Structures are given as structure tokens and as C-alpha cells.
Amino acid sequence: MTADLGGHPPRFRLGEGAAAVTVVVKNGAADPGSIPAEAAGLRWLAVPGGPPLPDVLGHDDEWLVSSWVPAGRPTEDAAGELGRRLAVLHAAGADAFGAPPPGGPAQAWIGHARMRNVGHDGPWHEWFVQDRVLPYLRAARDRGELDPAGAAAIDRVCARIDRLAGPDEPPARLHGDLWSGNVLWSADTAWLIDPAAHGGHRESDLAMLDLFGLPRLDRVLAGYAGAAADAGTPLAEGWRDRIPLHQLFPLLVHTVLFGGGYAGRAVAAARRLA
Fold this sequence. Notes:
- The chain is built from nine helices and eleven strands.
- By secondary structure, the protein is an alpha+beta fold.
- One of its GO terms (molecular function) is kinase activity.
């Protein structure tokens, strides 16, 4: 066995010659429950026709061993294919908004922040406020990361959520933490890694892709929109206007974890919805 400690998490080469395989080993002891949640998410998201994900080769409560994906560069074709495959993944659905993957814990994680995964009958906007906005808004306010005026701006969005949320949709099968760092461009396609999987609104994954500058995002969204329309489930009118709404959750998570300018970005997103 040989180890490459240059990346994070580390990868190891097991065996010799043609039979050798490279695996990634991840430790989640600092975030209890995160490894079972991630393993369940990787398995749940691996739907036929969806984006490829690393194989779960083994795990326990603290360690995850998964297949290694060699890195490549983003291309126009891979971006369009990612969008089409992401539409297939979302269409696979979930039992309820907030529902965890089968076998996944109710107490999950997004990054190093706790995240509650408990099914909610809906509508989506009620669950989103209850389990995805208010817990992190309260934490950020209690820690002094959000001033009263900023917190009030987000509270006003919560009070108007029924008018901002758009048409009702069934629960989608979400990656849940789909920022650009969790899209791994390989030789001829794009893989998804490090999920915070749950049932939610498909626009949330698209808004997350937009948040931190995914390469070739326009091609990804065009591929997604075309595939969704072909399947008879086009994106609802005004979905681009709702991007700030769906970005409130990850921005508040980042505010709780890192502070700094994320609080200002969360407040700016809320005020764009006024």
C-alpha cells in the first residue's frame, strides 16, 4: 500500500500492478454522524442516468473509503452533460422535503455544520423556513454575526415566503451541498462528491451551483433546462429570480461557520427579494 498525502482527504494505492486500485479515505470523527450520512447520500444519489459519484467501498461511524476519481478540466460537452444528468437525479425524487437518504441519520451535516434531515409533509416553503433558514439565522444572530437590521431583513423574507417560493413541486433528490468544489471535473465528465443529500427543491441545487462560480455554468443550466423540458417538467417561470431565496440557506450556514462577509451576502440576498 502506498499513500499520497498531498490531497485532502488522503488517497491510497492498494495492491500492485494491474490489480492495484486507488481509494480515498476520509475521517469524520470531528463531526459525529457525518460519515454514515455521506455514505448513505452517495449511494442514494447514484441513480441510473444521473451524475457519476464515487463508489462507497466501506465505512463505519468514523471512516469512509471510496473510489478515487482522477481530476480533469471542465469542457463544454461535460458541462452540458452534467446539467442533463442533474435533471435526471432530481427527478428520481424523495419521500418528503427534508427526508434523509435511506439509512441516513436524521442528524446530518453540511460541511462542519449540523443539519436536520427529518421528513416534512410540505409545502416546501414551510419546511425551508423551519429547518433550513431559521436554525442558522438564530445561530448567526446569537453569535453576533448578524446585526438586528440584517436579521430583520431575513425575518421579513421568512414572513413572505409563501409569496416568494414559486409554484409547488414534489420533493427532488438533492445533492444538497452542490457548490463548485463538490463538482469534480474528470477526463470527459463531471462527478459529484461530498453530498449533504436530502429531499428538497431542485432550484436549491441550481442556486448553489451559482453561488461560488461553477465553471461553464451557463452550459450546465442549458443542459438542465433542456432535459427537464424534454421530460415534461420544465423549470417554473421566474426560477432565476428565486436564486437569492435558495441561496439564503448556504449563505447562513457559511455565516455560522466562517462569519466575515457571508453575513453581508446573506442580508443582500434577502434584500434582493424585497
